[in-house]
Amino acid sequence: MIIASLEDDLVQAELIARILAEAGYECRSYNQGKSLLAALAKPHDFDLLLLDWELPDVSGLDVLRWVRANLGHALPVIFLTSRTQEEDLVTGLQAGADDYIQKPLRKGELIARVHAMTRRLNLAAPVQDSRFSFGGYDIDPEHGQISLNGQAVTLAPKEFELALLLFRNPGRLFSRDVLSSAVWNREIPATSRTLDTHLSNIRRKLQLRPENGVRLTASYALGYRLELLSDNT
Predict the structure, then answer these.
(1) 3-class secondary structure for the chain?
(2) What is the pLDDT of residues 66-81, one digit of tens each?
(3) Which of 116, 147, 172, 178 to pair with 91, CA 20 to 30 A apart?
């Protein structure tokens, strides 16, 4: 897995590269947004982008917006940022970031987030109707079925679509707007309980709990993330 890291602080850049190398990843470091954009504009083999938010030339947010406008959403992007204001984080997620890590950087958290993105890439089936497993779950997109430990779980159509989106993207943080647009093809007002009700239903019906190898975490402002707690994929 090849990771492009955008970080203008030399000490931080070297730390990121060392942590990733020790974990078995190849890291290519860039200290200017323009340099990374130039690399992205050409044929490249990056599997993941780690973007610092604040840079002297082109911000990480502007790089992200360029990536989503020109390369689509297949390339995962994680922000490394010292920004802690909720509105900043929401802005990054709405612009298309898959996740964020707040500075100061912690080795364990960085590796965990990168591993989560790795699992997401590995589970992205070339044929969208192919069956796949996730923890104790067996997902059959073609027939709209999900089984837990061999027992089929009855889900409403939109509940299945929502669960399938989460299972296909382990570790990805989804904003409410992204979930509603992906499943209902429209934005759902914050005052509506539609999304919350569906999430509550799939959490209950699918028993999305640590004892089944998964955890559904939620932040009303930032979004929702399905985490795989075991390696039995």
Answers:
(1) CEEEEECCCHHHHHHHHHHHHHCCCEEEEECCHHHHHHHHCCCCCCCEEEEECCCCCCCHHHHHHHHHHHHCCCCCEEEEECCCCHHHHHHHHHCCCCEEEECCCCHHHHHHHHHHHHHHHHHCCCCCCCCEEECCEEEECCCCEEEECCEEECCCHHHHHHHHHHHHCCCCCECHHHHHHHHHCCCCCCCCCHHHHHHHHHHHHCCCCHHHCEEEEEECCCEEEEEECCCCC
(2) 998 888 877 889 988 8
(3) 116
Q: Report pTM.
A: 0.60
60 contacts 51 by C-beta, under 8 angstroms: yes
Residue in the block written with tokens 């990733």: 20
* 62 band by pLDDT with thresholds 50, 70 and 90: very high
